[in-house]
């Protein structure tokens, strides 16, 4: 009789434990989503409180993304030097202090500085959670556990929009309204300290990665963790030998290893950068960072615009669940192609509806019919993005590169994504002032261009072993 039958409860309990460990690591993803999107509700309050225009506001919103790019670059080294768990604790500390600092800024420059600190935490969290989950998850469950990160991000976005709306309502429908002597927009930014504290406590409750422990010559501890995450039946000698062999044969890839193609970098690296850029250039984060500003710019009041932001976040969660269900069944390419086509139609429709906007600035309005069309188009766009590019790009980036350059190529592609995100975020308010409809035409063109990109440049990775990628 096999040992799996002897301990029917052990397998269940041990899997439950692995799920808890993965969820604790993915809490970094929750804060990544929360911190990225919480600014959406605070934008109007920040503008009114500091008396700044769209250009300055865009700078404050977007500067966090440059912090994220820096955080993503240093995260790998921090994780190898401090360990995975201590790196998570560092990220939770940075999230907490940036939330509290952003709550009480004496001026706009100090607020921008705290946004950079939060951005660094986002960058670290975006790298450390998938790294840790991949290292502790049993092979059979790795794909599903890895998708915890994306789900945590979209839940973080949704909870931030729910908190924004609730705080706005409590302050009488104005983000500059007072609650306990502090303005609503300040509470929106400060509340982040609570999930940051939860993340820190959860990080203290999970074991260090066995891979890190073996690299750090703490083999006895690594053995205990392997039993904890893989069950009593694991062949410890074989697993330790396997991890050690991989560590010894692994040579740190250098930037030189990514070069050699016609345009400097290897073609596969350009494909990764291209996928990251297209994911951002369709303008998805305009919806998550500026939707309250966007809807107010067509005459919808602040309170209702925050409610719309919440509903788009819920659509985002639904789309992510669809992607997680389908990505291993129908493959990466068909999902990406369907999403691109849907996004192009939705963005084109939104551009058409916005072309009927009358007036400018605070006095701008959109008649009911076209406002309704724009609202539906925005929700369809978010759904099409969430079930396709939102998840598919991260899955592809984790799979498409050859083993020897995977970690480095992934960090280059992820940095490209933060920079593309920054470019879209910093340019939107001025573009919207210039011509909101034309801005959406630009995003629609990128969605259209992503179709031939997927068709001709992306190779399907479904069902292929990571070792086959070359």
UniProtKB/TrEMBL annotation:
Membrane topology: Multi-pass membrane protein
Subcellular location: Cell membrane
Short name of one Pfam family: Sugar_tr
InterPro entries according to UniProt: MFS_dom, MFS_sugar_transport-like, MFS_trans_sf, Myo-inositol_Transporter, Sugar/inositol_transpt, Sugar_transporter_CS, XylE-like
Top-level taxon in the UniProt lineage: Bacteria
Transmembrane segments: 12-34, 54-75, 87-106, 112-133, 187-207, 263-290, 306-327, 334-354, 374-396, 408-428, 440-458
Domain Major facilitator superfamily (MFS) profile: 21-462
Family per similarity comment: Belongs to the major facilitator superfamily. Sugar transporter (TC 2.A.1.1) family.
UniProt-recorded name of the protein: Sugar porter family MFS transporter
Species name: Kitasatospora putterlickiae
């Amino acid at each position: 009789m096999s040992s799996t039958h002897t301990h029917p409860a052990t397998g269940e309990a041990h899997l439950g434990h692995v799920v808890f460990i993965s969820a604790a690591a993915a809490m970094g993803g929750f804060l990544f989503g929360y911190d990225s999107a919480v600014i959406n509700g605070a934008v109007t309050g920040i503008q009114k409180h500091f008396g700044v225009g769209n250009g300055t506001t865009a700078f404050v919103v977007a500067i966090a993304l440059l912090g994220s790019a820096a955080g993503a670059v240093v995260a790998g080294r921090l994780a190898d030097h401090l360990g995975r768990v201590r790196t998570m604790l560092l990220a939770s500390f940075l999230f907490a202090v940036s939330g509290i600092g952003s709550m009480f800024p004496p001026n706009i420059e100090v607020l921008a500085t705290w946004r950079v600190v939060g951005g660094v935490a986002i960058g670290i969290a975006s790298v450390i959670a998938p790294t840790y989950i991949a290292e502790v998850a049993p092979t059979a469950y790795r794909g599903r556990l890895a998708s915890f990160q994306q789900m945590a991000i979209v839940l973080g976005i949704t909870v931030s929009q729910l908190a924004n709306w609730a705080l706005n309502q409590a302050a009488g429908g104005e983000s500059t309204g007072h609650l306990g002597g502090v303005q609503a927009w300040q509470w929106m930014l400060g509340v982040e300290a609570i999930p940051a504290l939860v993340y820190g406590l959860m990080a203290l409750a999970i074991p260090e990665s066995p891979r890190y422990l073996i690299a750090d010559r703490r083999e006895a501890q690594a053995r205990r963790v392997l039993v904890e995450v893989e069950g009593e039946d694991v062949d410890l000698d074989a697993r330790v030998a396997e991890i050690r062999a991989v560590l010894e044969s692994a040579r740190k890839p250098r930037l030189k290893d990514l070069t050699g193609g016609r345009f400097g970098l290897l073609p596969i690296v350009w494909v990764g950068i291209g996928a990251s850029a297209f994911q951002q250039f369709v303008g998805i984060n305009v919806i998550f960072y500026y939707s309250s500003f966007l809807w107010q710019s067509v005459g919808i009041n602040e309170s209702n615009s925050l409610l719309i932001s919440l509903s788009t976040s819920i659509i985002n969660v639904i789309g992510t669940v669809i992607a997680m269900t389908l990505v291993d069944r129908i493959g990466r390419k068909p999902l990406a192609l369907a999403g691109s086509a849907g996004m192009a139609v939705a963005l084109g429709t939104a551009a058409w509806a916005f072309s009927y906007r009358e007036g400018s600035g605070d006095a701008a309005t959109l008649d009911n019919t076209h406002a309704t069309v724009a609202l539906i188009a925005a929700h369809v766009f978010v759904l099409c993005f969430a079930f396709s590019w939102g998840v598919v790009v991260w899955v592809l980036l984790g799979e498409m590169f050859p083993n020897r350059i995977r970690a480095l190529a992934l960090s280059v592609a992820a940095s490209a994504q933060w920079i593309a995100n920054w470019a879209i975020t910093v340019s939107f308010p001025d573009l919207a002032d210039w011509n909101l409809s034309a801005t959406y035409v630009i995003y629609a063109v990128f969605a259209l261009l992503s179709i031939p990109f997927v068709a001709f440049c992306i190779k399907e990775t479904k069902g292929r072993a990571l070792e086959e990628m070359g």
